[in-house]
Amino acid sequence: MTAGTGRWIRNFVDGRYVEPDENRSFENIDPATGRVFARVHEADRELVDRAVTAARRALRDGWATTPVRERAALLRRAADRIEERFEEFVAAEVADTGKPVTQARQLDVARAPANFRTFADVAAAGQESFLTDLAGGRQALNYAVRKPLGVVAVVVPWNLPLLLLTWKVAPALACGNAVVVKPSEETPATASLLAEILTEVGLPAGVYNVVHGFGGGSAGEFLTSHPDIDGVTFTGSSATGTQVMRTVAPRARPVSLELGGKNAAVVFDDVDVDEALTGLTKSVFTNTGQVCLCTERVYVQRAIFDDIAQGLAERARGLRLGDPLDAATTTGPLISKAHRDKVAGYFELAEQAGAQVLTGGGVPQLGPDLAGGSWIEPTLWTGLANTHPAVREEIFGPVAALIPFDTEEEAIGLANDTEYGLAASVWTDDLRRGHRVAQAMNVGTAWVNTWFLRDLRSPFGGVGLSGLGREGGESSLHFYTEPTNVCVQL
Ligand code: NAD
To answer: Do both 433 and 447 map to the same domain?
Structure first.
């Protein structure tokens, strides 16, 4: 088998890597150094069509009706194989994203086998059934047979490439679907590498396909507009998500949208400041702020506002930017120069509005080797109004605005004053207040005294501009299957 990564990152269609075409390719850049480390073969419309056709055929050839225990066993073997080749995935993910190797090991790549194992277990769950009471003492038996949705288009972003990909591919396969995956153009490597694993563990040809390329006018649009897909699961920005919804609308296919966030942390003055600072540091700066769940708004009760502001700034200054392969590095670059320009644009806007910059606000100098990378300083502001663009729009960088509040009611109002609704965290020693405020958050996920603690069986998604639908556990089973209700009069 020709490898899916190396100098070339290849498309994977109908069980084999596709010979790349030099004339239809783009560069894959290491964001830590700015150097090109591979070329990616961009799929054209015809190749996307071949992938969808292969997926359809694979379903008919028996994958859709393979017993669930066999599919689950295959997924568990895939999890084992990823663990055996763990460091290859780590290397590919670090080269693609520039993220610190320690994070890639502990979070990104570790989540891939967890995704496969969780959905192998979840898929084995039973069917909904119940009795309906009829006139005259008779009854009817109702049950739903869940069938695979069919050919599922999977479109994912660059920030947690393998984690987010396997979060969708694992349940899709567990439920008997065939997938055509379109990874981000910024981070194509691990999707192609995963094809090797799935082939090795015996996944039939055509069940997992990868097409590389961009969004509009390229593989992303060719795939989501294809007339023979049965549904789209998308993770990415709110703007693209709504575009994908429009593309799919004329054919009324189901979409699952996991979109952007502008997440709040609400910190009450009864909290252990040190513990809260540890949690906040993680929630603002993990993955250089490039997690949809990252906190970009920190509301702090007035009595401890200065302690939290100064403490968080000190923790931010203690982050170590540098070579992603150095185990001591905590913070990598942003994904690209274009994204850095966007984040830096908010630095200017905040300063123009008179924000106080507690720390950061610029581009760091990291020596000749990393000079070409898209580095940015972790940055904190105070003095911004809740209406300022830096407090309203998703920046997707290592940044946060800190804003004081006096009462619980005021904090809830400030946190909910947003078009987004992905996640929030509440920091308090008062458990009743924790429950009360968490439930009042208009979001898909609200944490109390923690952040990014995920049980893959729980529903995940957002409200408002943060998305549509839920995935995870049973919610994934529901999205990746179509139920047929059978009603039998007894
Ligand atoms: P993006 O929307 O630019 O791209 C996401 C994917 O969509 C990429 O593969 C891209 O090529 C593709 N795409 C772009 N235009 C398309 C089109 N017209 N048709 C079909 N496909 C198209 O997002 P990004 O910059 O890669 O990722 C960052 C965004 O993702 C942030 O907004 C972040 O909050 C969000 N995100 C959300 C979650 C979540 O679970 N809610 C998780 C991670 C990231």
So the answer is: yes
Task: Give residue 84 CA to ligand 1 midpoint distance, Å.
Answer: 30
- The secondary structure element, H or E, covering residue 122 is helix 109-123
pLDDT surpasses 60 at 3 = no
Closest atom of ligand 1 to CA, residue 466? 41
Q: Which atom of ligand 1 is nearest to the CA of 216?
A: 18
Q: Given this model, what pLDDT does residue 1 score?
A: 37
> What confidence score (pLDDT) does residue 93 get?
96
Question: What is the mean pLDDT of the segment spanning 235-257?
Answer: 97
* 3-state SS, residue 260: coil
Question: Would you tell me the crossing angle of helices 273-285 and 305-317 to the nearest 10 degrees?
Answer: 50
Residue 49's pLDDT is 98
Q: Is residue 1 part of a domain?
A: no
Mean pLDDT computed over 268-278: 98
- Whether 255 and 343 share a structural domain: no
Lowest mean pLDDT among 115-129, 199-213, 251-265: 115-129
Write out residues with Cβ below 6 Å of ligand 1.
155-159, 164, 182, 184-185, 214-216, 220-221, 224, 235-237, 240, 243-244, 258-261, 292, 394, 396, 422, 462, 467
CA of residue 174 to ligand 1 center, whole Å:
24
Instruction: State in Å: Cα 336 to ligand 1 middle.
Output: 14
CATH of the domain at 113: 3.40.605.10
* Residues whose CB falls within 8 Å of the CB of residue 153, separated by 6 or more in sequence, listed in order: 179, 180, 182, 223, 224, 226, 229, 231, 232, 233
Structure tokens at 247: 């593309």
Which of the four pLDDT bands, split at 50, 70 and 90, describes residue 79?
very high
Residue of 156, 240, 342, 374 to test ligand 1 pocket, by largest number of atoms within 8 Å of CB? 240
**Domain tally, the chain:** 2
For the segment 2-13, the average pLDDT, to the nearest whole number, is: 78
Between the CA of 318 and the centroid of ligand 1 the distance, in Å, is 31
Q: What is the distance between the alpha carbons of residues 404 and 381, in angstroms, rounded to a whole number?
A: 12
Residues identified as active-site: 258, 292
Question: Per residue in 344-365, pLDDT tens?
Answer: 999 999 999 999 999 999 999 9
Q: Do residues 220 and 213 touch, judged by C-beta distance below 8 A?
A: yes
**Structural domain span for residue 94:** 8-259+466-489
